[in-house]
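Help needed: design a sequence for this.
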């Protein structure tokens, strides 16, 4: 799962609300977000109103999932794909006992 957060300060409250909604919706379906392969992608890092990575991490990523932090729209796709693939493979290895 990839959660795309907007790095702009004016979108922080909406990011938090969306992440809470995601967690709640998954729970209603019998899933725990903390047990799923999960990557946090910080979008719009190039904008002047972007908050620091430390602030984004503190507000949105208290469980320290993998983070992808890219600004240009074409650059982040491959890095995020690699990050989620790594998370899935790690989870599969954990689930298979190896």
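Sure. Designed sequence:
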């Amino acid at each position: 799962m990839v959660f795309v957060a907007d790095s702009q300060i004016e979108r922080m409250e909406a990011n938090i609300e969306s992440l809470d909604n995601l967690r709640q919706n998954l729970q209603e379906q019998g899933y725990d977000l903390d047990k799923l392969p999960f990557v946090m992608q910080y979008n719009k890092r190039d904008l002047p109103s972007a908050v620091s990575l430390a602030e984004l991490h503190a507000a949105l990523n208290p469980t320290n999932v993998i983070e992808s932090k890219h600004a240009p729209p074409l650059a982040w796709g491959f890095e995020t794909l690699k990050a989620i693939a790594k998370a899935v493979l790690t989870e599969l290895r954990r689930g298979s006992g190896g």
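The two ends are 22 Å apart (CA to CA).
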